[in-house]
Sequence to fold (490 residues):
Amino acid sequence: MFQKINDVLDAVDSFVWGVPLIVLILATGIFLTVRLRGVQFMQLKFALSSIFRKSDSGEGGELSSFKALCTALSATIGTGNIVGVATAIALGGPGAVFWMWAAALLGMATKYAECLLAVHFREVKADGHILGGPFYTMEKGVGEKIKWLGRPLAILFAVFGTMVGLFGIGTFSQVNSISSAVQTFFDPAAAHAVQLFGRSYSWSVVISSIILALLVALVIIGGLRRISSVAGIIVPAMAVIYVVLGLWALLCNVSRVTDALEQIVQGAFGFKAVAGGAVGAMIVAMQKGIARGIFSNEAGLGSAPIAASAAKVDHAVQQGIISMTGTFFDTIVICSITALTIVISGAWRPELGYSGFGITNAAFQMLLPRVPGQVISFFLMVCLVLFAFTTILGWDYYSERCIEYLSGGSMLPVKVYRWLYIVAVFIGPYMTISAVWTIADIVNGLMAIPNIISLLVLNGLIVKLTDDFFKGKRIYTIGYDFSDKPVAAE
Fold:
């Protein structure tokens, strides 16, 4: 039964994440990078220095730019950074890391563009709260240019966004990884088990799922401000702890970093594949690397713009430039630490029998042999649990905004969804690992398609807003000018 389900999911995943979507995502990143004159490279210093800028005087908005970034990072820095990277390398080899990097560097331009548009097209509701995201970009922006396309794209995006939260990044994959990490630390041999749903589960999994569901329920009832407050504390603290632990492991093995980089580059282009298999190996590495990269940093997915739209800014470019740093921190910094640790250690190799969190856990223990394994496992478990917890919160917010858009502003469907979300968090640990990640990949890909289409259609407006900002007109009235004329007002 489970095998048949997995076979069907694998077939759908291969179709959704086939060559056409991979090419579309990379081509969009390249196109925007060229059109914006490499904004992610040329303006990175300015972006990093702007993160802590005081923005309380910005027009509209509910959050500071920093809290909006943390809310977005709460949804991106999660299991993808620890478990997703491991899974990508296990399935696609070290070469998957190269394509993860490529997707991230190009994705920074994509993230910049989608967050810029979300702020530009956001709406202020009667009660003062902000609703914005790709669905308004599509309805207002794309809809003005191509009337028959805007609204259908917006609906598709909002539907897929809800599915990603409920069935993909937001719940199953995060909770499954949390329970796996908890079991690895407290009951690795599943010595204390119980029979549920026809299968045996460790009590550590059952108890952790109940506690997690209760904590999620307590936070999400408080809405955006409570989610952003929790994220603003947990995300920076856990990111620092994980980065310090990772850099320590790499510095202790610095002489092996060059060899790891060689494996990554050679694997990316199938140089070490058997005769006739280079192209196939490269495609698999691309598929797994790009899919896991997007799962982690969500560039092009259209999720981060929902949080970005709530920022207090004077110009849409301000938040776009800050939001793109999320992809930099997520993939170029945190995912790279995980990837290099795994490749150097060789813990990803199939013959060792590790999977998911077990790969990363084994890799750190191999590179830090003088540190007790239990200590390493504990810190990794804490990092993973807290990263995943904030991701669960962030994706609940994203999905709620999608539902609010679909319901025309009615909050009843949102309240119902919250309880469904809590139920999904509770049952997440009982999904198989392969099925969890495959479902996440499928809905991620479906969500990205309408978002990328909107970015291509509105690339002219993105360029005009960017040029206006960097030519000195940094304060303007955010409005909806669809004519492709300059939108700034002195």
